[in-house]
Amino acid sequence: MPNSTLTRTPVETRILDLLLPYHRTTEPGPPDPAAHPEQLDQIRRFTEADEPVLFTLPGFPCKSPNPAKVLGHLPDEGERLSLGFLDRLCARIGEIYEPGARMLICSDGHIFGDLINVPDAHIDAYGDELRALIRRERLSHLDTFDLRHVHGELDYDTKRALVTDAYAPDLETLRAQTRTDEETARLYRGITRFLVEDTAGFTGTRSALQRECRARAYGVIARSRAWGDLIADCHPSSVRLSIHPQRPGAAKFGIRLLDAADAWATPWHTTVLRETGGTARLLHRADAERLGRLVLRDGRPSHYAAVA
User: Fold this and answer.
1) Beta strand segments in the chain, E
2) Is the pLDDT of residue 237 over 90?
């Protein structure tokens, strides 16, 4: 006999309940669906229409250019595990809601690749391998979307400019928000930190590097917002996810892909360390290297396995 409490609980609440254990937030608290009215409304639009729930997730841009963090410029165990997690999450939704769910991975590497010093060729290779990984692992609930799907056959510089001109906030607005909005300020500090860590070959002083990275951070945020707004235009009814921490009640739902001590850690800024019990942790490559041995998958560096 079905659980009467579950059958009385609205399906959008039950779907959100599946996401809440993985909420990525800087304001942890009891997992309460009522604290996320935006997501409940977004999910409800699909359930009332008896359609598959569509999640859009900007992320999976490219690997960090810092070799002390990552194993190379192609997806590895971190992406494999993260994509598998997202696919299983959609499958679990299908167990309680017959139309199921789909996840659109909106790779944002090309939109700001020039600002983070990653060449478009590396971003293309990363995206191609990401799609190949989805096929190999038979992750049937996942699809991908990137700048190659926008503005036809134009070159990347032109596409970046068109998307930025159409959607990005101006610099002064962004500067003002970093002074008055804690979420924006936290994002700005986090991206600045990544840029400082990932900038190789800088010949100036440390303070000059920080100034330069702070300027680039505004550009990364502006273009990321532009990308998010373009996705919202293309998929206006989707449930919007984020790989960045989001407070309860925000327009986007922050989602944690894998365990990490750093709330900002992602598979593309880190390397996986497999603990002796099988648990996967995200660490910088230099740290994982000290704790484990390198494991290859299909002849390529994949992750580290902890040495007992």
Assistant:
1) 53-59, 101-107, 142-145, 239-242, 253-254, 271-274, 280-283, 292-297, 300-306
2) yes
